[in-house]
Amino acid sequence: MKRLTKIIAVAFLFSLVLVGCSKMNQENYNKIKIGMDYQQVIEIISNPDKCDAALGTKSCIWGNEKKNISIKFVADKVAFPTMKGL
User: Fold this and answer.
1) Three-class DSSP category at 12
2) N or C: lower Cβ tally within 10 Å for the chain?
3) Which pLDDT does position 19 carry in this prediction?
4) Could you list the mean pLDDT of each consecutive 10-residue stretch along the chain, which spans 86 residues?
């Protein structure tokens, strides 16, 4: 019985992780608007997987080469959002 309880707990936690990962979808991408603050984007789709910054600009990506959201920020404001494979 304890083993079954542990299996159920692990499955539940795994499902929570999957729900968290599902923030990178078309619906949330559509919420991102030009001029939006970096922090507002984080609240919608979580922290980026990678960011590169230079001279007041920042390019961030969420996801991988096949499925991603990529956003270029100028002065921490959305300037150019794109997506692939959502």
Assistant:
1) helix
2) N
3) 43
4) 55 45 87 97 96 95 94 97 95
What's the pLDDT score for residue 18?
44
**CA distances, 44 to each of 10, 20, 26, 33, 65 (Å):** 26, 11, 12, 11, 21
3-state DSSP of 19-85: HHHCCCCHHHHHHCCCCCEHHHHHHHHCCCCEEEEECCEEEEEEECCCCEEEEEEECCEEEEEEEEC
Residue count of the chain: 86
Whether the CB-CB separation of 5 and 11 falls below 8 Å is answered with: no
